[in-house]
Design goal:
- The protein contains 19 helices and 20 strands.
- The chain is α/β, with parallel strands linked by helices.
- The protein has four domains: 40-229, Rossmann fold (3-Layer(aba) Sandwich), CATH 3.40.50.300; 237-311 and 326-411, Rossmann fold, CATH 3.40.50.300; 418-457 and 619-660, no CATH class; 466-525 and 558-604, no CATH class.
- The chain is globular.
Length: 660
C-alpha cells in the first residue's frame, strides 16, 4: 500500500497542526472530522488520554499500519487500546482521503460497543450518530457521514452477507480476540480471504497480554508486527486465600466489609461466577450495609449485569447535604462485565476465580450451564484493574489451586456452542467445505455433523447439501434456525402472531441476563436502588369461560416435526405471506397454493424435493459415534477425520451405499 508521505498528526498537538484537513481560523484550531472549532472539554480529555499507557505507542502503531496489512496489539484491559486505537485508525483514514473508506470496530458485547462509541464521540469532540456511531442488535445509530463505527461481531458477520469483501471499510478492528467468541473466530477465518482479495485493507487485532495467542495469530495470518503495551504503573499487590471457600459469595461479602471497616479509601470491584451470585451479593450488601454506622461511610452497591442495557457506573442517590462521610462504590459483575467497568479508578479487586459457561452437548442437543475456573489470562487481566495507588487484588483461591485447575487460555467458544446457526451462515456465504474452511481452531466434528443434520431436518438443505430456497429465507432472520423455521411454518397454521411472541420470549434480549433469566429479587427495604433494567411484570391471563388459565405445558417443538410433512410450507408461499399485511393474513382469503385453516392438506409434490413421498425420508448426516453403527436402523453418516479436518464421505444406509 502506498501510504501518505507523513503520518497523521493528532488534533490539538503541540505543533498547532491538525490532520492536514483544516487550518486554524481566528486563532481556533478546527476539528478535521466536522470542521468546527474544538471545545474546551476536548483539551481536558486530551490530557487524560495522554496519560494512558497506549498513548506513547501511537506513532509506532501508525507506522506499522502503513507498512503491514495485519497489526496485532497486545496489552492489558486498562491500557486504553480499545478506546484509542480505533480513533487513530479514523485519523489514518482521514489522511488517506475520502476514497479510503471508514473504520469498523467489532466488539464481543453490545454494551461495550455502545459505551466505547459514547467515549470516542466525546474524546473526538463530534456528535454521536454522525462521525461516530454504533450498530448493535435492535439499535442502529449511524449515518452516511460515520467514519468510525462500533458494532458487535455478529452484526459485522451478518453485514458480510451483502458485502463479502467489506468494500466500505478501510480498516477493520477486532477487539477482545483473546475471548475467542464464536463470531470472532468466524470473522478471523473470513477476513483471511478478504485480505487476499483486498491488499489495501488493514486488519487490527486487539487482545490481552498473552504469549501464546499472538504467536498463533501470526502463524494463521503470516508474519506480522506485534505491538506490546505495558502499563507504567506499579503492579498491584496480590493476596491469595488459603483455600477455595465453599461459599464464595459469602466469603466475598465478608471480605468487602472487612475492607470497608478499615477506613481505607477506594472503590471495589467484585467478580462473581454468575448473575444469581450478583443478586445474592447485592442483597447481602444492602442488608448488612444498612446496619453500619454513619462514621463508617456509605457503601453503594452497583450490580452490573453484562447482558443488561448499559448504565454508567455512578451512584443512584446523592448524599444528603452536610453529610461528609466517604462513599465507597462496590461494582458487582461477572467475567463478561470486565469490558463494562469503565475508566473509573478502582483500588480493590475481589476475585472468586470462577465463571459460569454455557456448554452445548451435541449428543443430547442441549446446553448446560457449568461453573468452571477462569483462565490464567483472565486472572492476569483482573490483576491489572487497580489503577489507584497501593492497589490490592484479593484472590479467593490459593496459588496451588490456580496452578492445578486454571488453564492458560479460555476455552474456544466455537468448540462449546451450537453450530447450527454458524453452519447456516457459512452455507449462505457459499463456503461448502465446512471442515476445510479457514478457522484458527477447528470445530468439534460431532457438533458439525449435528448442525448439518439439524439443517437437513429443517429443510434448509437440498439433496446436494447446498442451501435450499427455504434455507436462504431462514438465513435472513436474526434468530436461531429452529425459531426461523417455526416462524415460517406458523404462516401455514395461522399462528404467526403467537409464534412471534414465543420467539421474543425465548430469545435473549436487552432485558435478559446471561442465563436468560430475569432478576427475581427486589432490593431490600432501605437499600439503594440497583441501576439495572427490569421488564414490566407479566400480566395475568384472563379466565376463558369461567375456567382457570391453562398452563402451557406440552411437548416441545423438535426440528423433525417442523416442515417435514406433505403440506409443509414452501419458500414461495412463505415469501408471499410475509409480504402481506396482518389484516389480510387473518381475514382475507388464503393465497393460491395454500389450504384454508382447518381444511384438508393440499396434494402435490413434497417440498423436500421432486420424486419423494412422505415415507421416503432421506438419510441424514449423523454424529461421529453413530457412524460406527449399532446395527439398528440406517447408519447416518460415514466420515474420516484427519488432522482436525472433516472430510465428508458417503452416506450410508443399512445394506446399501450411495454417494451423496
Amino acid at each position: 500500500m502506498d501510504g501518505p508521505a507523513s503520518l497523521p498528526k493528532s488534533p490539538g498537538s503541540s505543533d498547532g497542526e491538525g490532520d492536514g484537513a483544516t487550518a486554524p481560523r481566528d486563532g481556533l484550531e478546527l476539528n478535521p472530522f466536522d470542521g468546527l472549532p474544538f471545545s474546551s472539554r476536548y483539551y481536558k480529555l486530551l490530557k487524560e488520554r495522554a496519560a494512558l499507557p497506549i498513548w506513547r505507542e501511537k506513532y509506532p502503531f501508525l507506522e506499522r499500519l502503513l507498512r503491514d496489512q495485519v497489526v496485532i496489539v497486545s496489552g492489558d484491559s486498562r491500557s486504553g487500546k480499545s478506546s484509542q486505537i480505533p480513533q487513530w485508525c479514523a485519523e489514518f483514514c482521514l489522511a488517506e482521503g475520502a476514497e479510503a473508506g471508514s473504520v469498523v470496530c467489532a466488539q464481543v458485547h453490545p454494551q461495550a460497543a455502545v459505551a466505547l462509541a459514547l467515549r470516542a464521540a466525546d474524546e473526538m469532540d463530534v456528535g454521536l450518530g454522525q462521525e461516530v456511531g454504533y450498530a448493535v442488535p435492535f439499535d442502529n445509530c449511524c449515518s452516511s457521514e460515520t467514519i468510525l463505527r462500533y458494532c458487535t461481531a455478529e452484526v459485522l458477520q451478518r453485514e458480510m452477507r451483502s458485502l463479502p469483501l467489506l468494500s466500505r471499510y478501510a480498516v477493520v478492528v477486532l477487539d477482545d480476540v483473546h475471548l475467542r467468541s464464536a463470531a470472532t473466530d468466524v470473522l478471523l477465518g473470513l477476513l483471511r480471504g478478504v485480505l487476499r482479495a483486498r491488499p489495501r485493507l488493514r486488519l487490527v487485532l486487539l487482545l490481552a497480554a498473552s504469549p501464546a495467542l499472538p504467536a498463533e495469530l501470526r502463524a494463521f495470518y503470516g508474519p506480522g508486527p506485534v505491538l506490546e503495551v505495558s502499563a507504567r504503573r506499579p503492579p498491584a499487590r496480590v493476596v491469595y486465600h488459603s483455600d477455595a471457600p465453599d461459599d464464595p459469595v459469602g466469603c466475598a461479602a465478608r471480605l468487602l466489609f472487612d475492607i470497608h471497616r478499615t477506613g481505607e479509601s477506594g472503590h471495589v470491584v467484585v467478580f462473581l461466577a454468575c448473575e444469581q451470585d450478583i443478586r445474592r451479593a447485592y442483597e447481602i450488601i444492602c442488608e448488612e450495609g444498612s446496619r453500619l454506622g454513619p462514621e463508617a461511610g456509605e457503601l453503594v452497591a452497583v450490580p452490573l449485569y453484562p447482558r443488561e442495557k448499559f448504565a454508567m457506573l455512578r451512584p443512584n442517590e446523592d448524599p444528603e447535604e452536610g453529610f461528609q462521610a466517604p462513599r465507597r462504590k462496590v461494582v458487582l459483575t461477572t467475567s463478561s462485565g470486565e469490558a463494562l467497568i469503565g475508566p473509573d479508578a478502582f483500588r480493590f479487586v475481589i476475585d472468586v476465580g470462577l465463571e459460569r459457561r454455557k456448554v452445548y452437548n451435541p449428543w443430547i442437543r442441549a446446553s448446560t450451564w457449568t461453573t468452571q475456573p477462569i483462565s490464567e489470562a483472565r486472572a492476569q487481566e483482573r490483576r491489572c484493574i487497580p489503577t489507584a495507588p497501593a492497589g490490592q487484588v484479593f484472590c479467593l483461591y490459593s496459588q496451588e489451586w490456580s496452578r492445578r485447575h486454571m488453564q492458560p487460555l479460555a476455552p474456544v467458544q466455537l468448540q462449546e456452542c451450537n453450530l447450527t446457526g454458524t453452519v447456516l451462515f457459512l452455507k449462505r456465504m457459499d463456503i461448502a467445505g465446512l471442515g476445510r474452511c479457514d478457522l484458527i481452531t477447528k470445530p468439534a466434528p460431532a457438533s458439525l455433523m449435528q448442525a448439518l443434520e439439524d439443517l437437513d431436518y429443517l429443510a434448509a438443505l437440498d439433496d446436494d447439501g447446498n442451501l435450499s430456497e427455504f434455507g436462504i429465507i431462514m438465513s435472513e432472520f436474526p434468530l436461531e434456525p429452529q425459531l426461523a423455521k417455526a416462524l415460517l411454518a406458523s404462516c401455514e397454521f395461522d399462528c404467526l402472531s403467537e409464534m412471534l411472541t414465543v420467539a421474543a420470549m425465548v430469545t435473549d434480549g436487552p432485558g435478559r441476563g446471561r442465563s436468560g433469566e430475569l432478576p427475581d429479587a427486589d432490593p431490600p427495604a432501605g437499600g439503594p436502588a440497583a441501576p439495572d433494567v427490569r421488564l414490566p411484570p407479566r400480566p395475568r391471563r384472563a379466565r376463558v369461560g369461567g375456567l382457570p388459565p391453562v398452563r402451557p405445558v406440552g411437548p416441545q417443538l423438535h426440528p423433525r416435526r417442523l416442515g417435514r410433512h406433505p403440506g409443509a410450507l414452501g419458500a414461495a408461499d412463505a415469501a408471499v405471506l410475509l409480504q402481506q399485511p396482518a389484516a389480510q393474513r387473518e381475514q382475507g382469503p388464503p393465497p393460491p397454493g395454500r389450504r384454508p385453516a382447518g381444511g384438508p392438506r393440499r396434494a402435490g409434490p413434497d417440498p423436500r424435493g421432486p420424486g419423494r413421498t412422505p415415507l421416503q425420508r432421506p438419510v441424514t448426516p449423523g454424529h461421529v459415534a453413530a457412524a460406527a453403527g449399532t446395527g439398528r436402523g440406517p447408519r447416518p453418516f460415514a466420515e474420516t477425520v484427519t488432522d482436525g479436518t472433516v472430510v465428508v464421505g458417503k452416506w450410508v444406509r443399512k445394506n446399501s451405499r450411495r454417494e451423496r
